[in-house]
Amino acid sequence: MRTPSPDPTPDQAHIGVIGAGQLGQMLALSGISLGLSFTFLDPSAQAPAGRLGRHIQAEYDDELALEQLAVECDAITLEFENVPVSAVASIARHNQIHPGERPLSIAQDRVHEKRFFESLGIPVAKYHAIDSFEDLKSAVADLGYPCILKTRRLGYDGKGQVVVRHSDDLEPAWASIRGNPSILEQMIPFTREVSIISVRSTRGECAFYPVSENQHRSGILHRTEIHMDDPAQERAEEYARHVLDGLDYVGVLAIEFFEHQGRLVANEMAPRVHNSGHWSQNGAVTSQFENHLRAILGWPLGSTACTGHSIMINLVGIIPPRAPILALPGVHLHDYGKEPRTGRKLGHINIVADTKESCRKYATLIEQMIG
Amino acid sequence: MRTPSPDPTPDQAHIGVIGAGQLGQMLALSGISLGLSFTFLDPSAQAPAGRLGRHIQAEYDDELALEQLAVECDAITLEFENVPVSAVASIARHNQIHPGERPLSIAQDRVHEKRFFESLGIPVAKYHAIDSFEDLKSAVADLGYPCILKTRRLGYDGKGQVVVRHSDDLEPAWASIRGNPSILEQMIPFTREVSIISVRSTRGECAFYPVSENQHRSGILHRTEIHMDDPAQERAEEYARHVLDGLDYVGVLAIEFFEHQGRLVANEMAPRVHNSGHWSQNGAVTSQFENHLRAILGWPLGSTACTGHSIMINLVGIIPPRAPILALPGVHLHDYGKEPRTGRKLGHINIVADTKESCRKYATLIEQMIG
């Protein structure tokens, strides 16, 4: 058992991170500037962040590895929400970990997540928990078509989801879900999808980034645009504050909403730094990565204000040649250093410009380059 | 001998850096985002940048280590100007290294540097090369008091310099220089010291950052302020362009000037990223570190425009507690992760604000905190 130090978060703290993907890498790039050092726990030898600190190569349920991480670090966090809750509990016996078990267990189960949003008065799409084909048929009878069947657990980037538009779709949909505990949700004919990146520190200080408008391609985030003075800002902040305070949450948390007839309907939340907040690396005074670290260390949060008009474009499957991209002013490349693979997020491009028009012009040019 | 690849600077290049101090660390933090990886050559086991890539722990004249660096990297650069010229020559036999032998050998000798500036029509203070006490006496007779005696080689942060104000100072000054080849310079009653960070790529593209106004304490840079539309900008750019083109230079190069009666008088140059350019990490569209990497890789240079009013303050000998610093808006801490030691540069703080007034207000608060 670690003896709590008199200063639980020393200025040159050593941070433990469960997961060593690109989010871990960007946390480290941000934190090393602040004088922090890092240890990552990740089973993959090729994990991008592994080279930016110590890499404990072990499975997420390896008790010895978890204890090692807990004991050698001053504060522990995670970069993806599917870390086993038991791993978080195991670390919590030795040291502080943020976010903790409760937000994680809620975010890992779409039914718990919906119920949690409802408990806070945050609108969600109508839904039913599905444990059998009978459940599915009666849920469809209630919700009508179209609706969407999702596994309760372990879905991401559109995986584990299937749209049900017609009674003929029911059997294939159920088969594709392989009988896993699922949720059937009414499909909302939304006008746009927005998300908010919020952050709350160990001292209870909260900050909210400007809402982003997100476009997906094949279930993967493709493009995020930030609108200063977005009409959805006030309501999104209100909901995010309910979630942060309701969970006594610490760190960055993202919530995705559908906008439907001027209302925000919560889709899901991610208890971590989030792809729709990557624009903040170049387009905000303080990035989501730095603010996540400030939050878990109890440091004052940094300003979330925009420094210009921002668009982020994901690089999926391929990183285009650099020279024509870097020739555009205000364009910043972030390459995660991963092996290219179809459908894999390899990097992103942040565009910051003085005006919405020039920002969109460069975004269009970049979309042409990436095809 | 390395076989030149058809694409000499692949997009995910491996960069070799001679030296692994804070400048190397900041180059790496910037380059890893761009998809680059790094190998550092540095004799110190504690060198800060060593943890951000492969660290070849060897002396700078270790021929085997130099060859290893040359052969395993796609492009090689350096983070301090006192790398032995023979080391650069040794690498140049195997691979490209920027900056190369000529700028380095000029920058390493204050007399060569002065002559080089003169050859380009860039004003310098009156000076004499000093090889003996007799030389010193006759030089003083020509230049008058006060003047400043500096070793020709290996001076930095005010080390190897002594002011001569009176004939009684001559013998102690000569003794303090220990008979090393030196230069006696007229002391210019300058109104301010400014520097310009310039960059030139392998393709000959040049870019210039806004001139910074620098204040020193005990010979060490203390504070840098950026004035947009500084009256010295045009002339400083003109001189920097002469230097860049005159050397067929590649990479970032800094030139320090004294401003005297509205004229710029060149003091010295640094063929590397420079402390007076650190503000660009948070206050410019593209940092000097990213532009140095873009330059040596032949990529288009990024915009050097300011994103606000910027002041940088060095943290020498001590890093103050973070919380009160980070509570100020637009304030960015850069901690090099080094062991504290009197007179050692441990980090810096960049302040970016919309107005000169608020930027200076925060700078004053920070100066009070660091004492």
TrEMBL record, chains A, B:
<dbReference type="InterPro" id="IPR005875">
    <property type="entry name" value="PurK"/>
</dbReference>
<feature type="binding site">
    <location>
        <position position="216"/>
    </location>
    <ligand>
        <name>ATP</name>
    </ligand>
</feature>
<dbReference type="GO" id="GO:0004638">
    <property type="term" value="F:phosphoribosylaminoimidazole carboxylase activity"/>
</dbReference>
<comment type="function">
    <text>Catalyzes the ATP-dependent conversion of 5-aminoimidazole ribonucleotide (AIR) and HCO(3)(-) to N5-carboxyaminoimidazole ribonucleotide (N5-CAIR).</text>
</comment>
<feature type="domain" description="ATP-grasp">
    <location>
        <begin position="114"/>
        <end position="297"/>
    </location>
</feature>
<dbReference type="InterPro" id="IPR016185">
    <property type="entry name" value="PreATP-grasp_dom_sf"/>
</dbReference>
<keyword id="KW-0067">ATP-binding</keyword>
<dbReference type="Pfam" id="PF17769">
    <property type="entry name" value="PurK_C"/>
</dbReference>
<dbReference type="GO" id="GO:0046872">
    <property type="term" value="F:metal ion binding"/>
</dbReference>
<dbReference type="GO" id="GO:0006189">
    <property type="term" value="P:'de novo' IMP biosynthetic process"/>
</dbReference>
<keyword id="KW-0658">Purine biosynthesis</keyword>
<comment type="function">
    <text>Catalyzes the ATP-dependent conversion of 5-aminoimidazole ribonucleotide (AIR) and HCO(3)- to N5-carboxyaminoimidazole ribonucleotide (N5-CAIR).</text>
</comment>
<keyword id="KW-0456">Lyase</keyword>
<dbReference type="GO" id="GO:0005524">
    <property type="term" value="F:ATP binding"/>
</dbReference>
<dbReference type="Pfam" id="PF02222">
    <property type="entry name" value="ATP-grasp"/>
</dbReference>
<feature type="binding site">
    <location>
        <begin position="155"/>
        <end position="161"/>
    </location>
    <ligand>
        <name>ATP</name>
    </ligand>
</feature>
<protein>
    <recommendedName>
        <fullName>N5-carboxyaminoimidazole ribonucleotide synthase</fullName>
        <ecNumber>6.3.4.18</ecNumber>
    </recommendedName>
</protein>
<comment type="subunit">
    <text>Homodimer.</text>
</comment>
<dbReference type="InterPro" id="IPR011054">
    <property type="entry name" value="Rudment_hybrid_motif"/>
</dbReference>
<keyword id="KW-0436">Ligase</keyword>
<keyword id="KW-0547">Nucleotide-binding</keyword>
<dbReference type="InterPro" id="IPR040686">
    <property type="entry name" value="PurK_C"/>
</dbReference>
<feature type="binding site">
    <location>
        <begin position="185"/>
        <end position="188"/>
    </location>
    <ligand>
        <name>ATP</name>
    </ligand>
</feature>
<feature type="binding site">
    <location>
        <position position="193"/>
    </location>
    <ligand>
        <name>ATP</name>
    </ligand>
</feature>
<feature type="binding site">
    <location>
        <position position="150"/>
    </location>
    <ligand>
        <name>ATP</name>
    </ligand>
</feature>
<dbReference type="GO" id="GO:0005829">
    <property type="term" value="C:cytosol"/>
</dbReference>
<feature type="binding site">
    <location>
        <position position="110"/>
    </location>
    <ligand>
        <name>ATP</name>
    </ligand>
</feature>
<feature type="binding site">
    <location>
        <begin position="267"/>
        <end position="268"/>
    </location>
    <ligand>
        <name>ATP</name>
    </ligand>
</feature>
<dbReference type="GO" id="GO:0034028">
    <property type="term" value="F:5-(carboxyamino)imidazole ribonucleotide synthase activity"/>
</dbReference>
<dbReference type="InterPro" id="IPR011761">
    <property type="entry name" value="ATP-grasp"/>
</dbReference>
<dbReference type="InterPro" id="IPR003135">
    <property type="entry name" value="ATP-grasp_carboxylate-amine"/>
</dbReference>
<comment type="pathway">
    <text>Purine metabolism; IMP biosynthesis via de novo pathway; 5-amino-1-(5-phospho-D-ribosyl)imidazole-4-carboxylate from 5-amino-1-(5-phospho-D-ribosyl)imidazole (N5-CAIR route): step 1/2.</text>
</comment>
<comment type="similarity">
    <text>Belongs to the PurK/PurT family.</text>
</comment>
<dbReference type="InterPro" id="IPR013815">
    <property type="entry name" value="ATP_grasp_subdomain_1"/>
</dbReference>
<dbReference type="InterPro" id="IPR054350">
    <property type="entry name" value="PurT/PurK_preATP-grasp"/>
</dbReference>
<dbReference type="Pfam" id="PF22660">
    <property type="entry name" value="RS_preATP-grasp-like"/>
</dbReference>
